[in-house]
Amino acid sequence: MSLLQYLDGNSFFHRMDPSMKFLWTMLISLLAFSVTNVYLLALLLAVHLLLIRVLANLRFRSFGNKVLLAFGPAAFFFVLYSFLYPAGSPILVLTAILFVLTTDQRRFVYSLIQVLRVPVSIAYMLMVALRIAPLIEEEMNNIIDAHAIRGMDMYAKGVREKFRRYRLIIIPLIVRMFKSVGEQMAITLESRGFGAYKQMTFAEQLRPSRTDVLFLSAWILLFAVVILAGFGTFGAFSNTFTPWGRA
Hints:
Layout: H1 12-15, H2 18-34, H3 38-53, H4 60-63, H5 65-83, H6 89-101, H7 105-114, H8 120-149, H9 159-191, H10 210-229, H11 233-239, H12 243-246
């Protein structure tokens, strides 16, 4: 299984409308970039870890390599950016992985088209962008297994030998992704009449629930409070135009 692939579940984040979750992800990204207070960023990072465990019901032990992929870079960049530039890169990593692991790609595309009225072509491109990483990893594992079956030592020592081994993986991977996977997508789109009709029909009608709207509204309110309080670049800019900022 891919490290970044949808995990089936019944948590709040799994049931949440994908469009509302996508808007929440964009809001968190904007908040992480605007806030420069390191203590507020640490609090936001802790809240994200709590959301992953409670509202997404994702156990860190069951993640395996996903935990290292998500929390490893997050912890590293948090320490590094605390000294160099107090921005929220760790939060972006956790938010993106949380979105991918709890969002069904098919429902995400349906929701973008039905709820946010996104054009079909743009919605499909977003789905392909989310799907391409698991596809690349899956194809790479297939190539490695094929070499291993033929008796090739994939753990050779030495820089030159390792470079030769990696070349035997990268070149077939590029050919496979551009030729086979690209052709399969093209055939699938053409056989299903993608873009042939202006009016589309859907097997599932999606609408955000009241809980989804309240959750997103609460974070929008939190974002407004943080900005107006001046905990970041946007906050400092907005304080110029507020009575309490000029006092």
